[in-house]
Amino acid sequence: NMADTNSSTILNYNLFGEAGDLPDVVHCETIEARSKLHDWELAPHRHARLHQILLIDWGGGRAVMEGSTWPLAPRTLINVPAGTVHGFTFTPGTEGWVVTVASEMMDEALEPSGDLRHTLSRLATFPADKTARPLMEQIFAEHAGRGYARAQVLRSLIGVLLGRVARSLSDREASAGQADGGGLFRRFEDLVEQHFVEHWSVADYAGALAVTPTHLSRVSRNVTGQPASRIIEERMIREARRNLVYTNLTVSRIAYALGYNDPAYFSRVFSQATGMAPRDFRERLAGANAGGG
User: Fold this and answer.
1) CA 155 vs CA 18, 32, 105, 244: distances in Å
2) Are strands 68-72 and 61-65 parallel, antiparallel or unpaired?
């Protein structure tokens, strides 16, 4: 039941069923590689910290994402932000690629552009332009190889892919007109950037925007598919991950910097959101990075 996104009923996967952290700069595989093993059907699931972009090159089927059914035709790109509940039923023989980008890689590729992050947070399917197929082929070939400067080349190609997807999403918005409530949501995002370390509640943000909490969450769902509370939590967790990855601050110091009076409570919040304790997250990522690239 795609309408039920309770964590007890929707499986949380990292990479179409894999439980470990993404062990590479990016992951790229054909649609056939996994879906054929499951009779071309992938049950509803979500990736807590992984963003996916799919290209249907030939064939098609349907996607069920956040309770809605989306038809999939050849030459279709699908943007699946982290945390989005999604499942696919592909026509047997469907060809294409799936690119999976870890949240940390997204942070690196998109920094400091908050506007790009906002645009890429939209769940969407749209026609692929003529650059999509050769770009996917490049990413797939580079990912499969072990050439010199492989990691740098992959980072550059992913930056191009994310930029082109964001451009397509922005163009679609411009042609269709700004989505209802989009202006309010952008003001909400600006406030979150200013006050997330103060731990404002949804009611606090709604009050500052002169709307009700219910209306704010409704607009947030319309724009991103997620409630306002999730947007607030995601911003905090993203900052926590960034500190764990890019600084040598202790977990306690990170907790205090993020407005938590109790580091143990911060660790519980982080663990509930990511599935692992802050120290485990840092150690596992350090181990993956030490593996090369």
Assistant:
1) 22, 24, 8, 21
2) antiparallel
Cα dihedral: 26, 63, 271, 100 (round 10): 0
Q: Sort residue 210 into left (φ over 0), alpha (ψ -120 to 50) or beta.
A: left
Residue type, 35: S
Please write the tens of the pLDDT for every residue from 169-193: 888 766 544 445 667 888 898 899 9
Residue with the bigger pLDDT between 249 and 117: it is 249
d(CA 198, CA 196): 5
Give per-residue pLDDT as tens, 190-245. 899 999 999 999 999 999 998 899 989 888 887 777 889 989 998 999 899 888 88
SS3 55: strand
Task: State if pTM tops 0.70.
Answer: no
Measured at the CA of 81, the angle between CA 62 and CA 64, to 5 degrees, comes to: 20
Amino acid at position 110, single letter:
L
Note the pLDDT tens digit of each residue in 255-292. 999 999 999 999 999 998 888 899 998 887 666 555 54
Residue 239, CA atoms < 13 Å, CB-side half-sphere? 19
- Per DSSP, helices labelled H in the chain are 31-35, 103-110, 114-120, 132-144, 150-176, 182-195, 202-208, 213-224, 228-246, 251-257, 263-274, 278-289
Average pLDDT over residues 19-25: 56
Answer whether the bond into residue 112 is a cis peptide, omega within 30°.
yes
| DSSP tag of 61 | E
Question: Which is it for strands 50-58 and 11-12: parallel, antiparallel or unpaired?
Answer: unpaired
Cβ-contact 197, 140 below 8 angstroms: no
